[in-house]
Design goal:
The chain has 296 residues and is α/β, with parallel strands linked by helices. It has seven helices and 14 strands. α2 (29-43) runs antiparallel to α3 and α5 (138-158) crosses α6.
Length: 296
């Protein structure tokens, strides 16, 4: 089965979090209560009281922003939560097909029935700037910029014929996205965006955990993972992987399942701390960006 996954879903902001990448979902009485609230919300996404109870279990990042972390690494707005919950409902007999059969795969996003990736030559020439003033020091800004550039270069060199480029510019008013630091200890390690996101959400943000001495993940690898989202790829473990979070939305497998994919969390006996590109990651990238189709 071929499975790098493209996904069509709500306007979520994908990121890497310490919880999702470092451990399985929590256990215990509190976790059971959260699971019960979540199940009720998935079953009743049109019930405001039930949805409010679910929102109360989430972390708002940053506080007051109206964006909430779900599944450990996805930021969605308050207005998108009902849609997100609907997307997590189990399929019923007779439902029209909205996603490819999924179990284990690298994945691409689908929006309005279309693969969500950088389709045109213009789209693939990405310009970015770094908001140095948002960082705690020039050293941290320099480190993040260098790590992003190395992560981007890995994707570019993996498929030169794909025509993707990342160019650093000084004028932040003439860029596709900005790299910045968000000083919120409740945030993930980092986050990025899908090509279909509104332009005001086209940001790559790093959070305090990115600089933690206890960070197990390769910092360049974190950037490789986030750039995977920018290119349209979802998480490798997206559905029905024991020990991993399930995710809503619509998606298409395009390569075989790769447990150590750059897009796989540390869960379900899969994942890697280096978050390096694997052969199937490169294969799926090449298939999608040169043919517009999954690998066959």
């Amino acid at each position: 089965m071929r499975n790098l996954i493209i996904s069509a879903t709500v306007t979520t902001a994908l990121s890497i979090s310490t919880l999702s990448l470092a451990q399985d979902p929590p256990i215990g009485v509190a976790a059971e209560k959260v699971a019960s609230i979540t199940q009720a919300a998935v079953a009743n996404p049109s019930d405001p009281a039930v949805v409010d109870a679910f929102v109360a279990t989430l972390v708002e990042v940053p506080t007051g922003s109206g964006f909430y972390l779900v599944e450990g690494d996805i930021l969605i707005s308050r207005g998108e939560i009902a849609n997100y919950l609907e997307n997590r409902q189990p399929r019923r007999a007779g439902d029209p097909p909205t996603e490819a059969p999924v179990s284990k795969e690298l994945i691409v996003n689908i929006v309005n029935g279309q693969y969500d990736y950088l389709k045109t030559e213009h789209d693939r020439s990405l310009k970015y700037a770094i908001d140095r003033g948002s960082f705690r020091s020039s050293q941290e800004a320099d480190a993040v910029l260098a790590n992003f550039q190395m992560g981007a270069q890995a994707w570019v060199e993996a498929c030169k014929e794909c025509g993707v480029s990342f160019s650093l510019v000084e004028d932040s008013s003439d860029v596709d996205f900005v790299i910045s630091y968000v000083d919120d200890v409740d945030g993930p390690i980092a986050r990025a965006f899908f090509p279909s996101y509104p332009k005001d959400l086209w940001r790559v943000e790093v959070f305090p955990d990115y600089f933690s001495d206890n960070l197990s993940f390769d910092q360049v690898g974190v950037m490789r993972h986030e750039i995977g989202h920018i290119l349209g790829f979802r998480h490798e473990h997206i559905g029905n992987i024991p020990g991993c979070f399930a995710e809503g939305g619509t998606y298409q497998p395009i390569t075989p399942y790769t447990p150590n994919s750059v897009m796989h969390y540390m869960c379900g006996d899969g994942g890697s701390f280096d978050l390096a590109l694997r052969e199937t990651d490169v294969e799926g990238f090449r298939c999608l960006y040169t043919t517009g189709k999954p690998c066959r």
